[in-house]
Amino acid sequence: MGSKHYSRIVSLVAVSILLAVSxxxxxxxxxxxxxxxxxxxxxxxxxxxxxxxPGQWTGDPDKVxxxxxxxxxESTYKVWHWTxxxxxxxxxxxxxxxxxxxxxxxxxxxxxxxxxxxxxxSILGPDNDYLHYFYAAPGEFSPCENCYDLGLGGSxxxxxxxxxxxxxxxxxxYAPNLPFxxxxxxxxxxxxxxxFVSTDGQIEIHTQEESLKRPNYPxxxxxxxxxxxxxxxxxxxxxxxVTYKGTTYDVYGSAWDDREWLFDKPALLHNQxWHWTxxxxxxxxxxxxxxxxxxxxxxxxxxWDNFYNISGHPQHYWSEVGPPPYCADFTLTEQExxxxxxxxxxxxxxxxxxxxxxVRLTAPSRGADLVITARAEDQEVYKATIxxxxxxxxxxxxxxxxxxxxxxxxxxxxxxxxxxxxxAVPWPTD
Length: 430
Prior knowledge:
It is a single chain. Helices cover 7% and strands 49% of the residues. By secondary structure, it is mainly β. The protein is globular.
């Protein structure tokens, strides 16, 4: 069988799997189940999605979320890239539009004090307007055995109040009239769901996600005492409905999901600045630039560049997972293996920080030369300043070459620089 025919068959298999996942959620369709038990000193229970507080670990007394300095953080992070069609409009009756979304649930304890739970959600709509929300409440998320069940607001909320960060200040909601805001549920790494209703009525998200590739691998795990217990699912199928500014859409597409434990948040934000991208290759481009399926469809790349502001030592990590059914895994961690170079910038009128809006990602050993362009310049998460000040997190498009083939895809691009730190650099270069 010729290589062209073989490549096309493999790509069609990958697309078929994605469609099957969208219609039926089961581990039977997780064709990239590799490295189920990664070799990591920090991750010994990769299929356990529970939130863990001190004393809740079983089988590993050292696996707790507090570090030696008495503070810690646990979080779940999800990125969506949706194709959206106004509700009730069938195929061919309405041109699809693009919506990108971002969601983080976090539990944070600092300096041995009490816990706080947080939720922030960002949406980049088809009009390129970036809406984002930040909510916080005192207390912990309840533990969940081999799952996670995280929520904020509504009848199940145990906190005395929820605070929302709004432009120009804060708004408090008190018991017993706490509004329902959000809930995300996951079990064993698959069969996830998300519900979110913004307090201003502009945004609603009701989706399900299923892992097309379930690597359960440590993303940047094991580098140092600041970053531990980190693993990801790099390609999820997503479907459901999203309401944006009064219009409800049927949506389908892809998503990224990861879990982090044991972040030393004060040390992380004091000493480190980062930029990274999570790329999902959607297919190839022919000689005329038309989108076609190929054997690179559903390839994922996580390129993380983490700069130590004080020591100057960077973390430099590339993790690439191939498409089903083979799921080849490439990891590049040496400085000369790959580069992430900024090409264009946008300066925030709020903080004065210069964020890159167009970057070039190259890796000669992978035949990779990719240009990542943000869909909108202003995707600064400025409402999250009480948790992290100086964050830009947005949706982007990808075109370029990989393994000698012209490819296209979608990406998340994230950057962090504290605006009040005179020693920080906006884009680490050495």
